[in-house]
Design a protein that fits this description.
single chain, 181 residues, alpha/beta, Glutaredoxin, six-stranded mixed sheet, 35% helix, 16% strand
Length: 181
């Protein structure tokens, strides 16, 4: 009984510690940071470019879903979930996956899973730090999604993400947002 109680307390403490990792530096209504970063399939969002930033996408609704590591279980589930419903997003919506991974790993991820969207490669973690989504280990981003309105301001933040259900909840929000404007 004590062992079971101790295990429950430990799992609660670990879960609480993980939840406390998020130290968001932005909130709904704030401008999304303007930093431009490298991306895979960059021509999908900006022709003949080396980097892409939110300013390049003004006038569009942008979904930026951050994942900790390409080619891992939850990240694959989430990314493929967005892939599977990508055509259902309103016209003018830009889907961007994002991580601290480099272009080589993210391109491998794109190729292996036939991802139809660009993947931001924030290898120096400029955006990750500006957003406040750096994991405690300092090497990866947390799993957080930002919906950026046509004005470049954050319309919604998802900091509690279930990789299986998340893409459809984002789709529902983006459809509502698109109808308002």
């Amino acid at each position: 009984m004590r062992t079971c109680f101790a295990a429950i307390c430990l799992s609660f403490a670990v879960g609480s510690a993980c939840a406390d990792d998020t130290k968001l530096k932005v909130k709904v209504g704030d401008a999304f940071p303007a930093d431009a970063v490298k991306a895979t399939q960059i021509d999908l969002v900006k022709k003949d470019a080396k980097t892409v930033g939110i300013a390049d996408l003004k006038g569009k609704i942008v979904v930026v879903f951050w994942y900790p590591k390409a080619l891992t279980g939850g990240c694959t589930t989430e990314s493929c979930g967005f892939r599977d419903i990508a055509k259902e997003f309103p016209e003018g919506t830009v889907l961007l996956g994002a991580s601290a991974d480099g272009t080589k790993l993210n391109q491998e991820f794109t190729d292996k899973h036939m991802l139809p969207n660009a993947l931001l490669c924030d290898t120096d973690q400029t955006l990750i730090k500006d957003l406040g989504i750096q994991m405690a280990n300092g090497k990866m981003s947390q799993r957080v999604t930002f919906i950026v309105g046509k004005d470049g301001k954050i319309a919604k933040i998802y900091d509690k993400v279930d990789p299986k259900k998340h893409p459809t909840e984002v789709l529902a929000f983006v459809k509502e947002l698109a109808e308002k404007k």
